Fold this sequence. Notes:
Keywords: Hydrolase, Signal
Distance between the termini: 28 Å
GO molecular function: hydrolase activity
Strand order of the largest sheet: 6-5-4-3-2-1-9-8-7
Protein name: Alpha/beta hydrolase
Largest sheet: 9 strands, antiparallel
Signal peptide: 1-21
CATH architecture of the largest domain: Alpha-Beta Complex
Number of helices: 10
Region (Disordered): 17-47
Amino acid sequence: MKTFKLLLVAACVASVSGCNSGSSKSTGQKTTPTKSVTPTKVERPAADHTFSNTELEALLTERNQILTSVKMSFEGKSYNQVQYAEELDEGQWVIKLQSSDASTVDLWLSNADDGDCLIYRPSVITDIFKCGESTRTSSDDSTVIQSTTQNRKSNIQVEFQTDALKHISSIGNTELTASNKDNKVTINTTFAFNEFFREILNNDGSKERINATLGVTTYLQMKDITSRFEGSEMILSFSTHIGGSADDDINMYTGLLIKDNKMATHVTRTGSVFSGGTDLFAAGNPRILQKASDTIAIESNKQIGVHSWGNGEKTALDIPFTDVSHRKQATYFNKVLGQQGIDFYIFTLKSAPFNGGHWITQADSDKYNFITVIE
Length: 375
């Protein structure tokens, strides 16, 4: 689902008499009553936002606090970087941590007072340790867990920033893997916790889609790939299911990387995009859909989906188009889709409520020239 940080501005709507109308001083002069003026409703958001390096750096600096918010020491190795995260349930997360030598481990972290936690690495480690209240030392902004694993009897220490933990799943969990053949680079998507879900949660996605999330980690990977393969022909291939973005401010910058590097985007037979994933698909040219089934309409395959957004209190269409969130989105879609970009954005807002979804039809695509190739 799309999320937005809304800029709330206290505006003074001035009439002829001005904003500062509370003065009790009288001039003794006769005044003529004035009619109040109703502001003209803006029917379309303006594409006037400036995407800048300054704004991007501020966003990355803020998100970096989350990427360094969980640390773990285990068997002589320190894991100080958060790679990906997923919220499993309220107060439970799976977090992929990386050490300085690039080795990784999955941490199932529970915030329950009497909870158990788990560390996992495919074919190497599966071990449980107590992580409830009795193992914790807390300060105003951080918590330290000191425990011993049940199987290996190894000491383990986990430290996390309490406030950052609430937002940790916003970093995303979509892994990008680039392969280069004959100067043609294919970037494939993968859910970062495939093995964990299959082996620990007994969920291989066969009964219900496992949807990966986009976030700052997606941008950082895409930036690295485009830097390494600058000048090469590139295609972003959505070969898994992308459920949306947890950080649209960053996600738009990821889309601009796709646009600026003249990438093609491709939803494969095994993949789908929704919400913020569709935003990234929109940034490609050409935009290719490989139908999961050739015998049914494209919307029945549920591969490219859109919806509106909300701020927790209002849905997007209840918020004036002059709002910064609308103008950012309008600017983004204008950049990636050209003249039809703003119309397509308004279509997404009307397509389904923020807690619903609409799968793009052939007619939708034709109207906005959205899917350029269907295979």
